[in-house]
Every structure is written in structure tokens, then in C-alpha cells.
Amino acid sequence: NSWYDLSDNPLVSSERVLVYEQGVNLAKRLNEVSFDISNMETDLNQEMDAAISLINSYSSQIADLNVQITGLEANQSANDLRDQRNALMDSMGKLIDIDTFEQPNGAVIVNAANGSPLVNGVDSYTLSEKDGQIMWEGTYGADLDITENISGGKLAGWLEVRDEILPKVLSEL
What's the pTM value of the predicted model, to 2 decimals? Predict the structure, then answer.
């Protein structure tokens, strides 16, 4: 609008000052939006770190429950422990896409992303974050980047926002 007013009255000093002031205000607002997007990225990284810690905790608890279930079910039913394990797997499934398989001895295998096991019977494996990527820490300390293979759960949503949506918004800005 200030540019339009200036085009009607190009010689009026107040119109030129208004264009300048409006331009400064626009630049400030664009900088604020850029800063807000940067803060969103920081917040998303913190959320993902917290989710990774929870997933690792769930994996460890599920492996511990597998030990208890396989020990008890030799002689009796372990339905309460199975319910606890199922609740942990449900909670984990909200954070990351998982596939579960029950073994004949009652233990479960929990795989994430590209089939990387998080729980394999009595063993649990952890996830970590490295340079913005989600790493699966397998046996013997081998790290595998599974970021591109995460397709469900909150973690996948946060990755999409951080890696695809926010950069697009920034480039459009």
C-alpha cells in the first residue's frame, strides 16, 4: 500500500519515508519468522532426543519382561507380564513404526524401520542421534543410519517437519 501511495505522489517526502519504514518493518518480521522456524527446529530435535530415550527405555524393559515371561511360562501363565509388555510395545509404536513377532518360547522380537531389531528375545538394542540422523546401534557397536526408513509414529512426523517442511518454508521465505 505504501508503494502504491508513493506511485501516486512520488515527490512527497512523507510517502518515501513511509515506504522505507514499511520495508524495515517487513524485514524485521521476516527475520522474526526465520528465528521462530530455527527455534522450531531446535524444539523438534529436543522432542526427538526425548523420544529416542523413551524408545531405548521401552526396549530395555521389554527385553527384561521377555526374560521373566520365558522363565515363568515354563510352569505357569504370565498374563500380567504379557499385558505390561504389550502396553510398552503400544507406547513404543506411537513413537516409531515397529513390527513385533512372538517366538515359540513367549518372548517377542521388536523391529523398527528397516527391520533393525530393538528387542530380540532377551537382548535390546538402542537408538541414538548423530548429526541429525537416527542411528541404530547394533551388535559390536555397529551404527546404521535408519532415518530414511522411519515411516511411522511421532518420530517420523517430527523428521518430516524438520527435514522437509521447515526447509521448504525457509526457502519460500
Answer: 0.84
